[in-house]
């Protein structure tokens, strides 16, 4: 949707961000006339860096920087020296997307036009600076599931209230891992030493998952996602998972063998870590990609959520493998 | 240090960020003369929004926006209308700090001067836009320990290589938790059901820790930290930990009691979670604050690091409390 009935624009769009303080020049002006007009109208307006040339119907037809106007010959017409290839925003563009365009276009301000190209306002790069800051804060809040808008001055009851929903949700998801261990109670009772490696395997699976998550979430800020690029990314992360998995598996297999004196235990722990690291890496990639695909914000796949899901996956794999080799472990 | 011997500035400072394309006006100019000078010199220079008034020794003494110059009476002297209260950067300011100043000052460009106030260059807000973006990326990379500079196009071997150092470190830290469980082997063998709640308690402690971490790291970007504000923040997080701890402890105590039919188990799990959530919240606050205090980047206290440390703390507390009540648990 572009505008609502009452003329109010959607939150966090170019329509709400734009400001009115621009100077428009009629297309009939000469450079000299334009400078005179500028000198008469510039008072009280901050941030005048570009001048917008409009048709009688107020359609935006060109743009001129003050610099270009001042450097031009006085008798020329403004339409002779204006830039016709204009970068302009619609009113309903997401502010993060607008920030991307500011980044690539290297402009101080960009005009906002309606569907008939009429000039409505301009957005300044200073306002975009706040947007970039705010979006980065929001990404971090979501990635670390820290709850909205908690700063140094938030009072403790409000801060706790904002943090609790995620924690309660994660508490219940975390209980699933308890249910999994219960199903493998016999295995664990037979070889209590399996418990020693539980936190490490679950933790490592969570760690590699959050690493992948960070790559995906920040990548999506500046990249278009196609089926092809998603498939390529997923394949890349799969290979990364294998390399990381083999390296860590060898390290832990040797440590487990030396520590507990059991080659089978070393192999069970090592092969479990290999499998969980590959799956954890893929989960940390697929979950935010799916959220993005279904128009949800990929950053709600927070580190804690990925960690908790990977906890569950890793316990299933670890105890599954251990149970297969239980006769050799005892 | 300000500049190196060969005149090259430190990385990521105002000195490397500044550009030369500014227009300086002699202090003797009238407005009319300044406009003429401007019209003659503006060609080929992009991003001219302010004019800098300099003394014969090229010291920066004032600033004028083109808008103000154009709106002023032609016979006035530029020194009569210039703004004398100038915001200027030294050459050795960190680019993140410069971005902060851009955010609060709402300026399109800010001049850079040397120690004798001579004008060396200017920094544009468009360049700061990239800085803010890049610093946010760096914060997220560090917070999620995702390794430097991995994007969608990094090849898998490079990506794995950049991610491995953190993972190997976390692997060894994770083994400490294995050592802790080994010390409590007797307790665990006696009551295997204790293992069911291990991942949930460790996970929740990590989750609350990363939440606190997010608040501290992003807060430090925009706030000055004094002993007083650190103490107040720590006290706030302590209260938050108590509120979160009591809420989650009651929930889990009831669940544990219903699930396993043991009131003592419910109380052990609940009181452990209360203690670990308070300690986890404090750890997630203290560790980045200490890093900041000792001039390290607080964001290297990544989520995975806080999670792994909190794993260890939570297991110590959980098995410690369980061992105290072991006779009642069996």
Automatic annotation (TrEMBL), chains A, B:
<keyword id="KW-0472">Membrane</keyword>
<feature type="transmembrane region" description="Helical">
    <location>
        <begin position="265"/>
        <end position="292"/>
    </location>
</feature>
<keyword id="KW-0129">CBS domain</keyword>
<dbReference type="InterPro" id="IPR046342">
    <property type="entry name" value="CBS_dom_sf"/>
</dbReference>
<keyword id="KW-0460">Magnesium</keyword>
<dbReference type="InterPro" id="IPR036739">
    <property type="entry name" value="SLC41_membr_dom_sf"/>
</dbReference>
<keyword id="KW-0479">Metal-binding</keyword>
<comment type="similarity">
    <text>Belongs to the SLC41A transporter family.</text>
</comment>
<keyword id="KW-1133">Transmembrane helix</keyword>
<comment type="function">
    <text>Acts as a magnesium transporter.</text>
</comment>
<feature type="transmembrane region" description="Helical">
    <location>
        <begin position="164"/>
        <end position="181"/>
    </location>
</feature>
<dbReference type="Pfam" id="PF00571">
    <property type="entry name" value="CBS"/>
</dbReference>
<keyword id="KW-0812">Transmembrane</keyword>
<dbReference type="GO" id="GO:0015095">
    <property type="term" value="F:magnesium ion transmembrane transporter activity"/>
</dbReference>
<dbReference type="InterPro" id="IPR000644">
    <property type="entry name" value="CBS_dom"/>
</dbReference>
<feature type="transmembrane region" description="Helical">
    <location>
        <begin position="193"/>
        <end position="217"/>
    </location>
</feature>
<comment type="subunit">
    <text>Homodimer.</text>
</comment>
<keyword id="KW-0813">Transport</keyword>
<feature type="domain" description="CBS">
    <location>
        <begin position="18"/>
        <end position="81"/>
    </location>
</feature>
<dbReference type="InterPro" id="IPR006669">
    <property type="entry name" value="MgtE_transporter"/>
</dbReference>
<feature type="domain" description="CBS">
    <location>
        <begin position="82"/>
        <end position="138"/>
    </location>
</feature>
<dbReference type="GO" id="GO:0005886">
    <property type="term" value="C:plasma membrane"/>
</dbReference>
<feature type="transmembrane region" description="Helical">
    <location>
        <begin position="238"/>
        <end position="259"/>
    </location>
</feature>
<keyword id="KW-1003">Cell membrane</keyword>
<dbReference type="Pfam" id="PF01769">
    <property type="entry name" value="MgtE"/>
</dbReference>
<dbReference type="GO" id="GO:0046872">
    <property type="term" value="F:metal ion binding"/>
</dbReference>
<feature type="transmembrane region" description="Helical">
    <location>
        <begin position="304"/>
        <end position="326"/>
    </location>
</feature>
<protein>
    <recommendedName>
        <fullName>Magnesium transporter MgtE</fullName>
    </recommendedName>
</protein>
<dbReference type="InterPro" id="IPR006667">
    <property type="entry name" value="SLC41_membr_dom"/>
</dbReference>
């Amino acid at each position: 949707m572009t505008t609502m009935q009452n003329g109010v624009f959607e939150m966090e769009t170019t329509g709400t961000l734009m400001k009115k303080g621009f100077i428009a020049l009629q297309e009939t002006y000469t450079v000299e006339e334009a400078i005179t007009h500028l000198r008469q109208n510039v008072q009280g307006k901050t941030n005048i860096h570009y001048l917008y040339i409009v048709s009688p119907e107020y359609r935006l037809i060109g743009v001129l920087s003050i610099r270009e106007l001042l450097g031009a010959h006085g008798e020329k017409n403004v339409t002779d020296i204006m830039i016709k290839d204009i970068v302009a925003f619609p009113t309903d563009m997401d502010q993060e997307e607008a920030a991307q365009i500011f980044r690539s276009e290297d402009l101080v301000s960009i005009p906002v036009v309606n569907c008939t190209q009429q000039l409505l306002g301009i957005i300044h790069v200073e306002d975009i600076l706040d947007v970039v800051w705010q979006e980065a804060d929001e990404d971090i809040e979501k990635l670390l599931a820290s709850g909205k808008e908690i700063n140094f001055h938030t009072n403790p009851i409000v801060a706790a209230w904002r943090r609790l929903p995620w924690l309660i949700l994660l508490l219940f998801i975390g209980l699933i891992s308890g249910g999994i261990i219960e199903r493998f109670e016999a295995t664990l009772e037979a070889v209590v030493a399996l418990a020693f490696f539980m936190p490490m395997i679950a933790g490592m699976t969570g760690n590699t998952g959050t690493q992948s998550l960070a790559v995906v979430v920040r990548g999506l800020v500046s990249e278009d996602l196609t089926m092809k690029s998603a498939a390529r990314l997923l394949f890349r992360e799969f290979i990364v998972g294998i390399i990381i998995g083999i390296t860590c598996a060898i390290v832990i297999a040797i440590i487990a063998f030396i520590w507990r004196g059991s080659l089978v235990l070393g192999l069970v722990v090592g092969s479990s870590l290999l499998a969980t690291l590959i799956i954890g890496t893929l989960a940390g990639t697929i979950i935010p990609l799916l959220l993005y695909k279904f128009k949800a914000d990929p950053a709600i796949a927070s580190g804690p959520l990925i960690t908790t899901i990977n906890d569950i996956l890793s316990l299933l794999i670890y105890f599954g493998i251990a149970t297969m080799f239980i006769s050799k472990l005892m």
